[in-house]
Design a protein that fits this description.
disordered N terminus, 11 helices, binds zinc ion, 31% helix, five-stranded antiparallel beta sheet
């Protein structure tokens, strides 16, 4: 692609690819194999033939899918080619030979698919699997128990017991049963239920707000935010530092936004970061950068809504990767 050739590799947004794969898995009409969880209604319209992608030429089914989150009463409707644009290209715009060019409401789709539950589940799983990688601000302790319990959603056996995750700076902590983690990862659901041998069902829930506060607050995030703010020039940020050579920043200032945490008035727009060696991108509101830099918080909230920075993805993106290694990998 022209833009990629001019300015290094182009691999799209990692988050959007994950989101696209999540949605794709729920749509049998385009090859999905996962039954929709209890809170999701997925309806695919009739297949109307085929169309091709303007980016890569791949041909797929022509049609639309509508997903409704019953807990949130929110729905999103997209052409199949949009699922392809997300999953294959990590792009917010689709280009179909029949559907034309259109924008994908990424924030709405994340909300509908419970993307946050899914990512937090994956983060917790990674922390439990690689205790050596637990960041400085967190401590994790497992409370094993003997036996298994059956998940009320899928029937799978899940081990009993729980683990506690604690923020070493704020002292906040919470205990999560393994069944709760299973529900987050497998069903993208903060609610979980267990089938008892007598046929009864017991229910529980992961305290998402608390988990968010525990995982998402670290002095290291302040340093990361301050470093990025140095080469972002919108109002309220540094802009005095030269952008590292392996990164490209594109800014889209727009109106105003007020931080719900501190009341500071910021630019209401967004900015994009791209690593020219890996081609990966991230698109964030300025408010997200402010939350990292000023509050050491991965979660942000303002008048236009709230969201969450996937810090591990951002760290990987801003890290310098050696072009030599890249060349070896790409053959
Ligand atoms: Zn394509
Ligand atoms: Zn399950
Ligand atoms: Zn603030």
């Amino acid at each position: 692609m022209q833009r990629g050739a001019e300015r290094g590799r182009h691999a799209g947004e990692i988050e959007l690819k994950k989101l696209g794969h999540l949605l794709h898995a729920y749509v049998p009409a385009i090859g999905g194999r996962i039954p929709a969880p209890r809170y999701l209604e997925v309806e695919a319209g009739p297949t109307l033939g085929s169309e091709s992608c303007g980016r890569c030429g791949a041909t797929g089914e022509l049609g639309e899918v509508s997903v409704r989150n019953l807990d949130k009463g929110r729905a999103v409707q997209l052409p199949f080619i949009a699922v392809h644009a997300l999953a294959s290209h990590g792009e917010r715009f689709y280009e179909g030979s029949t559907s034309g060019i259109g924008a994908i409401d990424v924030d709405a789709l994340k909300d509908v698919l419970n993307y946050e539950e899914y990512r937090i589940g994956r983060l917790l799983t990674a922390l439990l699997a690689h205790t050596a990688l637990v960041p400085d601000h967190l401590a994790i302790a497992e409370e094993m128990a003997v036996g298994v319990v059956s998940c009320g959603e899928c029937g799978d056996p899940v081990r009993l017991g729980s683990f506690t995750v604690r923020n070493c700076y704020s002292g906040a902590s919470t205990s999560i049963p393994y069944l709760g983690l299973h529900a987050l990862v497998e069903h993208k659901d903060a609610r979980f239920s267990a089938l008892a041998v007598d046929g009864g069902v017991s229910e529980g829930g992961v305290a998402m707000r608390l988990v968010r506060e525990i995982l998402g607050r670290s002095p290291a995030y302040q340093a990361l935010g301050a470093r990025i703010a140095g080469f972002v020039s919108a109002r309220g940020f540094g802009g005095a530092e030269p952008c590292p050579q392996h990164l490209v920043v594109r800014e889209h200032p727009a109106g105003e936004e007020v931080c719900a945490a501190c009341g500071e008035v910021l630019d209401g727009g967004t900015f994009e970061l791209r690593n020219i060696h890996t081609g990966h991108e991230m698109h964030l509101p300025y408010l997200a950068l402010h939350a990292l830099m000023s509050h050491g918080e991965a979660f942000y909230e303002g008048g236009r809504g709230r969201g969450w920075v996937d810090v591990p993805v951002l760290q990987r993106l801003t890290k310098r990767t050696w072009p030599m290694v890249q060349r070896l990998h790409s053959g």
